[in-house]
Amino acid sequence: MLYFHHLIKYLAMEDIINARCGWAGTDELYVRYHDEEWGRLVTDDKTLFEFLILDSAQAGLSWITILRKREGYREAFHHFEVEKVAQMTPEDIERLMRFDGIVKNRLKINSAINNAKLFMAIQKEFGSFYKYILSFLPDGQPIVNHFKTLSQIPATSPESDAMSKDMRKRGFKFFGSTICYAFLQAAGFVNDHLDDCFCKKK
């Protein structure tokens, strides 16, 4: 009986430990992304540029589709070295239109190169893209939300509205408010892990 009591207690602890946001499902790639990346603050510009490219590519598609092609995007876009992406040519675009490792959308490939140039302009103006993002957040601090269900998590926010509006004014493509909010969530500027998720408790 004592063993059974300890077993029940152990299983209950395992449930708590393994509780995660429902959107992660059971796909191993998605679960690992949820557990190790999503909602964790990113401060280095190279990783922020990676998320910018990936989130922009997501427009109209599911995130898991892009995650499965992440290595392809890394290969296609010079391991997310922004300076090299900004120098890509029309010949590079034609080559990538034949590359199965990414979503072969000419407008999105063009936008990645265009956005790289604008990304560098923001770095020059603000010192880093990281500092630019903070300028849209209350008191320049990441936002931690406290939601109990997935239905409570919004698709946009006043911050994503403002940031998206400014970026589009600068010429960024495929970065509307919904994509911007997804970017802020992915890079940890908005922590939308549900309150009972073990990642929120870390």
Please tell me about this protein's structure.
Strands 1-2 form a two-stranded parallel ribbon. The protein is mainly α. The chain has helices at residues 2-18, 28-36, 45-58, 63-68, 70-76, 82-86, 90-96, 106-126, 129-134, 158-170, 177-186, 198-201; strands at residues 143-144, 190-191. It is 59% helix and 2% strand. The model is unreliable at 1-17 (pLDDT under 50). It has twelve helices and two strands, in the order αααααααααβααβα. Helix 3 packs across helix 11 and helix 10 (158-170) packs across helix 11.
Would you summarize the structure shown here?
By secondary structure, this protein is an all-alpha fold. It is 59% helix and 2% strand.
Q: Any chance you could write out the topology, listing elements then pairs?
A:
Layout: H1 2-18, H2 28-36, H3 45-58, H4 63-68, H5 70-76, H6 82-86, H7 90-96, H8 106-126, H9 129-134, E1 143-144, H10 158-170, H11 177-186, E2 190-191, H12 198-201
Parallel strand pairs: 1-2
Helix pairs in contact: 3-8, 3-11, 10-11
Give the averaged pLDDT, no decimals. 91
What multimeric state do the chains show?
A: single chain
Would you identify the regions where 5 or more consecutive residues have pLDDT less than 50? Answer: 1-17
Helix content estimate: 55-70%
> Helix/strand-derived class?
mainly alpha
How many distinct beta strands? 2
Radius of gyration: 19 Å
- Termini Cα gap: 33 Å
Order of helical and strand elements: HHHHHHHHHEHHEH
Strand order of the largest sheet: 1-2
